[in-house]
């Protein structure tokens, strides 16, 4: 009797095991058969950053042996969210300028469930990838997308871009590794202006200019990066698309670091145009001119400057007020009173001539 019972139990366990194998085999087969374009053509070197936007890898192209930055973004299921994410690709493909991160290629992948997680364990074995969710962003996807996609098979958008140095202007300012001589400050700022002027000439608005999105190719050559918030100018005058505005507001909610560079009209959800980028430039220019001892001091000071109050050491250092006037013009509460990128270039040229300053070759002016 016991023998029969044991045989039945053993048979049941064997049947269950075979059934589980039958269920596992198709999944494993899909995993084994999946061909990743990224894996076929690139070798991951290291992770450059990760956060809510996705992840950025430094990778070597197996064919040309070149090194690139590969940005991987979870691709949303809703069409509106997809359109927002794809704006970055479309903008990068169109914008070709020496002060804008160069775009090479983009593609979609739809790996089997759990495949990506297994690969990430190999690509990021020690979780040594710094969290840059406050530094590198992309157009946000709806929360409903992210929840539903956790259960479904995910699609990923890969963007192959020019590889820049690891540390952005944000890290250089924070670590005080930036040479703050006026020539160096103006050289960096002139290149940013040149890039922004070109972006606007192509009828785009960046909408997320900040030090963490200013990257370096060399110590004196910069590139504007992260076009995850880019939008087309609806007219040459005013931008007022409700869905996009709502989306941008979601992205920047509770992100004090980003809001420090946002124009008042963006924060208050009012119609706006390319002058929002000029406001961001005003904050960046002040930050280039003024050093801080702590992060708390930086946040507090930038908040005060946005309201027109400058620290005493800044006023003492720049007694002629030329620099302050330039910052104030860019930070005007009235967008119409803010200069264009071309106007700022002219202001800097007058400044250089006034003080007989000779700029390095990397300066575009």
From TrEMBL:
Its EC number is 2.7.11.1. Residues 42-352 form the Protein kinase domain. One of its GO terms (molecular function) is ATP binding. ATP binds at residue 71. It is an enzyme of class 2 (transferase). One of its GO terms (biological process) is response to unfolded protein. One of its GO terms (cellular component) is endoplasmic reticulum membrane. Keywords: ATP-binding, Endoplasmic reticulum, Glycoprotein, Kinase, Membrane, Nucleotide-binding, Phosphoprotein, Serine/threonine-protein kinase, Signal, Stress response, Transferase, Translation regulation, Transmembrane, Transmembrane helix, Unfolded protein response. The keyword Calcium does not apply. Its main location: endoplasmic reticulum. It is a single-pass type I membrane protein. Residues 1-21 have a biased composition (Basic and acidic residues). Pfam families: Pkinase (PF00069). It is found in: Endoplasmic reticulum membrane. Residues 1-22 are annotated as: Disordered. Belongs to the protein kinase superfamily. Ser/Thr protein kinase family. GCN2 subfamily. This is non-specific serine/threonine protein kinase. It comes from Macrosiphum euphorbiae (potato aphid).
């Amino acid at each position: 009797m016991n023998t029969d019972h044991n045989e039945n139990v053993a048979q049941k366990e064997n049947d269950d095991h075979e059934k589980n194998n039958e269920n596992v085999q198709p999944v494993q087969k899909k995993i084994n058969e999946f061909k990743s374009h990224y894996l076929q053509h690139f070798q991951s070197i290291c992770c450059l950053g990760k956060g809510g936007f996705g992840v950025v890898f430094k990778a070597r192209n197996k064919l040309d042996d070149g090194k690139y930055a590969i940005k991987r973004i979870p691709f949303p299921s809703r069409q509106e969210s997809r359109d927002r994410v794809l704006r970055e690709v479309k903008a990068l493909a169109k914008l070709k300028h020496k002060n804008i991160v160069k775009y090479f290629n983009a593609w979609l992948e739809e790996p089997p469930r759990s495949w990506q997680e297994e690969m990430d364990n190999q690509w990021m074995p020690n979780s040594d990838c710094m969290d840059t969710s406050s530094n590198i962003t992309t157009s946000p996807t709806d929360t409903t997308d992210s929840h539903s996609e956790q259960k479904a098979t995910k699609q990923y958008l890969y963007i192959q871009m020019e590889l820049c140095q690891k540390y952005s202007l944000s890290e250089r300012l924070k670590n005080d590794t930036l040479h703050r001589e006026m020539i160096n400050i103006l050289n960096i700022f002139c290149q940013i202006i040149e890039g922004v002027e070109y972006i606007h000439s192509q009828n785009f608005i960046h909408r997320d200019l900040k030090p963490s999105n200013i990257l370096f190719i060399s110590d004196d050559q910069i590139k504007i990066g992260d076009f995850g918030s880019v939008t087309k100018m609806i007219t040459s005058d005013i931008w007022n698309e409700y869905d996009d505005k709502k989306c941008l507001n979601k992205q920047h909610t509770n992100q004090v670091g980003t809001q420090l560079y946002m124009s008042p009209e963006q924060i208050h959800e009012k119609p706006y145009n390319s002058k929002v980028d000029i406001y961001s430039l005003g904050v960046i220019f002040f930050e280039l001119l003024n050093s801080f001892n702590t992060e708390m001091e930086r946040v507090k000071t930038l908040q005060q400057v946005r309201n027109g109050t400058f620290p005493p050491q800044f006023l003492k250092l720049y007694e002629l007020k030329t620099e302050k006037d330039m910052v104030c013009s860019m930070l005007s509460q009235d967008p119409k009173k803010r200069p264009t990128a071309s106007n700022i270039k002219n202001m800097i040229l007058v400044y250089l001539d006034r003080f007989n300053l000779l700029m390095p070759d990397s300066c575009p002016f």
